[in-house]
Amino acid sequence: MPTPTELNLHRASRVLEITFDDGAHFTFPIELLRVYSPSAEVMGHGPGQRILQTGKEEVNIDQIEPVGNYAVCLHFDDEHNTGIFSWEYLYDLGRNQQDLWTTYLNELKNAGYKRKVLAS
Predict the structure, then answer these.
(1) Within its chain, how far is the Cα of 6 from the centroid?
(2) Dist CA 35 CA 83 (whole Å)
(3) Which of 9, 14, 80, 100 could cross-link to 30 by cystine, CB 3.0-4.6 Å?
(4) d(CA 91, CA 53)
(5) Facing residues of 20 across strands?
């Protein structure tokens, strides 16, 4: 499994960049990381139990805490900090980011939630 060689938080643009030792480079909107947090609060306690997160358009990261040599805990500014983001999970999120983002937007639409559009 690839491991990160660089991790950069861009608070102003609400983006987390991660480069892996195999050359893969991912740029994550913080909103995506928050709504796909691997915590039980978001993912539930089993397959198919993910809970749709709304109102996360402006969420940011206050702190990134290392967890051993295999993960980080992201402390979001909405007080959420229970998800342990393993390198493998982040790599998979990066590889599947477009599909996950589309799924999330469709879920919001189906739930009748109108996502706030933020100025760049």
Answers:
(1) 17
(2) 11
(3) 14
(4) 21
(5) 4
Read off the pLDDT of residues 73-82 as tens digits, 9 standing for 90 and up.
999 999 999 9
Query: What one-letter code names the amino acid at 110?
Result: N
Query: Which residues fall within 8 angstroms of residue 59, CB to CB, at 6 or more apart?
Result: 14, 30, 31, 34, 76, 77, 78
Please name the helix (run of DSSP H) or strand (run of DSSP E) that holds residue 30, with its range, or none. helix 30-35
Q: For residue 41, which of 61, 60, 56 has the smallest C-alpha distance?
A: 56
Domain ranges, ordered by start, for the chain: 4-110
For 74-112, the three-class secondary structure string (H helix, E strand, C coil) is EEECCCCCCCEEEHHHHHHHHHCHHHHHHHHHHHHHHCC
Tokens of 109: 């639409």
Structural domain 4-110, CATH architecture? 2-Layer Sandwich (3.30)
For the stretch 2-23, pLDDT in tens is 999 999 999 999 999 999 999 9
Q: At what angle do helices 97-110 and 87-95 cross, to 10 degrees?
A: 80
Q: Which two tokens stand for residue 83?
A: 């998800």
DSSP character at residue 56: -
